[in-house]
Amino acid sequence: MVIHDPQQRIDEDALKAWRLGAWIAAAVYTVIIGVLIFLTIRFDWPYWIAGAAFLIAAVVALFEIAYIPVWRWRRFRYDVSEHEIDLLHGLIIRKRTIIPMVKVQHVDTKQGPLLRKYQLAAVTFSTAAGSHEIPALLESKAEQVRNQIAKLARITDEEI
Amino acid sequence: MKKFEPGTHRLHAVSIFFFTFKFVKDLLYPLLAVIISTIVRGEINLLWIIGGVVVLVTGSAVLGWLSWLRFTYRISDDILHVQHGLFVRKKLYIHRERVQSFDMSAGVLHRIFGLWKVQIETAGGSKPEAVLSAVSTEESERLREALYGKGRGGQSDPAADTDEITSEEHHAIGPAEAQASGSLSTSELLPAQTTIQAQPAEPLASIRIPLRTLLMYSVTSGRVGIALAVIAAAYSQIDDWLSESFDIWNFVMNSLGAASLIWVAAALLFLVWLFSAIMTTIREYGFTLLADEGKLTTQKGLLERKQASISLKRVQGLHFKENAIRRALGYASVHVYVAGSTEKYEQSFLLFPMIRRSELPGLLEQFLPAYQLPEQIQGLTPRALPSFLTIPVLTAAVITAAAVLWVPDGYGLFTIALPFIALLWGWLRYRQTGWSVDDGMLTIRHGSFSTHHSIVPKHRVQWHALATNPFQRRKQLGTLSLALASGLIFVQLKIRHMPWTQGAELMGWLRRSSSANGKSHTRMG
C-alpha cells in the first residue's frame, strides 16, 4: 500500500514570522537570565544556576531561530481534496493526519500579530473531535483554502 | 394574572420545596457569615439568630412558591415552551427535533410522591437545557412521548418498583445460566432470546442485572481492588509479625504498637471498601437496559432512581472493559462512546455494568446489532516489544537508583520492585495491543492489567493519524490513532507500535470509507 504524501507547502514567509517569534522568545530568555544574574549577585546564589540557565537558553534560542523554523517549514505539507484534508507535520514525531471532509464542522482563518505583519493567516478547521490547522498561508491563499473547505464540507447530515 | 393558554402546565407542588431549598442554599452563606460575625464579636443574640433563620426560611418559602407559580410549560406543535424566572422572565423553546437526551431521575422525596425530575438536553448545551424539577409519572411519560419519540411504555411507578425482582430478570439472564452450568449449546440460548423479545411491555428488549452479579460488580469496582491489595499486603505483614511475636514476650510489647496500627489501617481500608461497595450497590441497584426504536435507556438506583436515554444515532463506538479481577471472574462492563453531552462529563456512557463475556454477543445482538466482538485479534510483531519496555523500565530504574542512593536507612530498597513492575506493565501492554477489521468495523484492543476492546464503525472516525518517532522509523513501526466524538470532548484510540505497513493499510481502509461515507450526500464538485 503506497500512501502519496501531500504536496502543498505553506508560505515561505512563515519562516520570517516564526523567526521573529523566536527572537521575541529569546528576548524573554535574556530578561529571565538577567534576573537570575541579579539574584546570584544579590543573594550569593551558586554560579552554576545562572550558568546552566544561560547555556540552555542559548542552545534553545539558537535552535528556535536558526533551525526549527526551517525544519518545520520543510516538513509541513498539506492537501485539500474533495474527500479529505491531508496533513503531514512534526519534526521528531512525524505525523500524517487525515480529516475526512464530511467530518469538518467549522472552518476559520485566524491571524495573530506576527502572522499579520507578513500578511499570513492560519486556516483552522474543527471536527466533533478537536481541531487542526494549516499554520501559515498568504492571506489570499488562506481565504481561498478556507472557502474551498467550507464549500466541500457543506454539512449535509446532522449525524456526527 | 395573565391568562393561561390551553395546555399550560405547572410542575407538581412538591417543586415548591425544591425551589425553596435552592433559595435557602443560596442565602445560607451570607446568613452563616452574619451568625459567625456575631459570635466572633461576642454579641450572641439568640433572638437575632433564630429570627434570622425564620426570616430566611419563610422568605425562601415565599420565593419558592412564587417561582413555582411562575414556572409554566406547555407543548404545542412538537415544541416545548418553558417560562420561568422570578424577576427576569425567561422563555425557552425546545423543538422535538433538537432534543438529544431526555433523562429522568427520582430522589427519595420524588419517590414518596411518585414523581420524576426531568432533564432535557439539546446539542451544544453544556448544561441541561430544561429542568423540570418534579412532574408526575404520567406527565413525564407524556413529555417523553411528545419530545423524545415513542414513549417507552410499561413505565412502572417509581415509588413502587424497588423490590420488584421480576421474572424478567430470570429470562434476561437465561443465556448466562445456560452457560454457567456448562452447557453451551445454541438450542439453550435460543429460548432465552425469544423470551426477551416476547416481553409484554413495549420495549423491544430489556435486560436487568441480577442482584448476585450486581454485588460482584460492587465488590470488584476499581478502587476496591486497590484497597483489597493493600489489605492483603498488610495482612501478610501482620501475620509475620504475630508469628514472630509469640516467641519473645518483650517483642510483643514493642510490636503490638506497630501491629495494632496496621490493624487499624486495614480495618479503615476495609470500611472504605465496604462503604464504596454499598454505595455502588445502592447506586446501580436494579440496573436495567431497555431498547426502544432508535434509543437505549438505562434505569438504575435503589433510593434515587435514574433513567438516562441515548439515541442510537449518536453512538460512536462500543467500549468493552474488563478489569483484572472481573476478567478473572469472566465478567466485563459495556460502555458506549456517545457524541454530545451525556451523563455529566463522563467520557463514555455505561450501557451495562457487568456481564459475562459469553453473554456479550447476545446482548449486542439485541441492543446494538451493528457491533460484534471479533473472534480474532491481530497482535503485534515481537520487534515492537522493546518500544513498550524501554521507556517504562528506564524511568523506573532511574527512580529506583535515585531512591536507593539517596533515601536514608535503606528504605529506598523498597523501590527495587519498580523496574520489574514496569517490565510486567510494558509486556502486558505489548500483549494486549491488537486490532481487527471486519466489515466496516475496526476493533482495537489495548490495556495492561485491564483489557479494553473498542469497536468503532469506520464512518464514525472523526480523523485519523499515523505517527512515527525516530525509534519506530528504524524498526518500521508506527502508532495509528483515531479520534471519536465522545461526551463533551473526544477520545483518541491508539494502536501503538504496529508495523508501519499495516498501519498504512489501515489508514488506506479508513480513507476509502471516509470517501464512501460522503457519496450518499449530493455534493457540488
For the largest beta sheet of chain B, what order do the strands appear in spatially? 7-6-5-11-10-9-8
What global shape of chain A is seen?
A: elongated
* Percent strand of chain B: 25-35%
* DSSP strand count of chain B: 20
CATH architecture of the largest domain in chain A: Roll
Summarize the structure in words:
The complex is a heterodimer of chains A (160) and B (525). Helix content of chain A is 49%, strand content 26%. With 160 residues, chain A is α+β, with helices and mostly antiparallel strands. Chain A has 2 domains: 14-73; 77-159, Pleckstrin-homology domain (PH domain)/Phosphotyrosine-binding domain (PTB) (PH-domain like, Roll), CATH 2.30.29. Chain A has helices at 13-43, 47-75, 113-117, 139-152; strands at residues 8-9, 77-80, 84-89, 94-100, 106-110, 120-127, 130-138. The relative contact order of chain A is 0.15. In chain A, the strands form 2 sheets. In chain A, strands 1-2-3-4 form a 4-stranded antiparallel sheet. In chain A, strands 5-6-7 form a 3-stranded antiparallel sheet. In chain A, α1 (13-43) packs antiparallel against α2. Chain B has 525 residues and is of the alpha+beta class. Chain B folds into 3 domains: 9-154, no CATH class; 163-195 and 377-512, no CATH class; 205-367, no CATH class. In chain B, the strands form 4 sheets. A 7-stranded antiparallel sheet of chain B has the order 7-6-5-11-10-9-8. The longest helix of chain B is centred in the middle third of the chain and has 36 residues, at 249-284. Chain B is globular. Classes of the chains: A alpha+beta (160), B alpha+beta (525). Chain A binds chain B through residues 1, 3, 82-84, 90, 92-103, 127-130, 132, 151-152, 154, 156-157, 159-160, and chain B through 313-314, 316, 339-340, 460-470, 473, 483-486, 489-492, 501, 504-505, 507-508, 510-511, 514-515, 517-518, 521-525. β4 of chain A pairs antiparallel with β18 (463-468) of chain B. Chain B: Keywords: Membrane, Transmembrane, Transmembrane helix.
